[in-house]
């Protein structure tokens, strides 16, 4: 039951060039900072990354983009990263834009072992091109397939040695849906406690969905867009 590994380096063992990786987070909120830094250090190439967006130019997945380590991004939002925009418009980066709710459900479906589902999102748009459509009760739906990923990497607030996880506030975002949605799930946490110390009623993700867990360090927790107003 002890799934603890020493650090990000040990957690990321087995990740190779050409693999498909899910990464939790929304903007810069709740991203697996330590694991991303490790992937940058390993200089792994040709990755397909599934994430809501790609961070900013000098942080988060933006660091992997800087090193040309990402071949394809599957995202729902790409507006805060100039390098992402440059690579996409130049044809250097393959981009698959997905409605945000569909992205979340494609993760959840993979987690639950559901191969595909129908959603009205995207019907009649480029999102539906080449996909099966079907009518239910007079409304048209698009069939979306669940994601297939080699690794899912998430960030949680607290975890225990068995991989049970608790997320905090909006840092929860896509992280719970990605747990168990890859062949191997890596969780990095701010606080790692022995088994039995977490209140079972507060656990968001049971350890059955997690294969490796480690305590992260030196979290910057940057704010993607700081918006302020003058004091009155």
TrEMBL record:
One example GO MF annotation: succinyl-CoA:3-oxo-acid CoA-transferase activity
Residues annotated as transmembrane: none
Protein's UniProt keywords contain Metal-binding: no
Pfam family, one: CoA_trans
InterPro entries assigned to the protein according to its UniProt record, in alphabetical order: 3-oxoacid_CoA-transf_A, CoA_trans_fam_I, NagB/RpiA_transferase-like
EC number, UniProt record: 2.8.3.5
Keywords, ordered alphabetically: Transferase
Enzyme class: transferase
Gene3D superfamilies: Glutaconate Coenzyme A-transferase
Name of the protein: Succinyl-CoA:3-ketoacid coenzyme A transferase subunit A
Organism for this UniProt entry: Parvicella tangerina
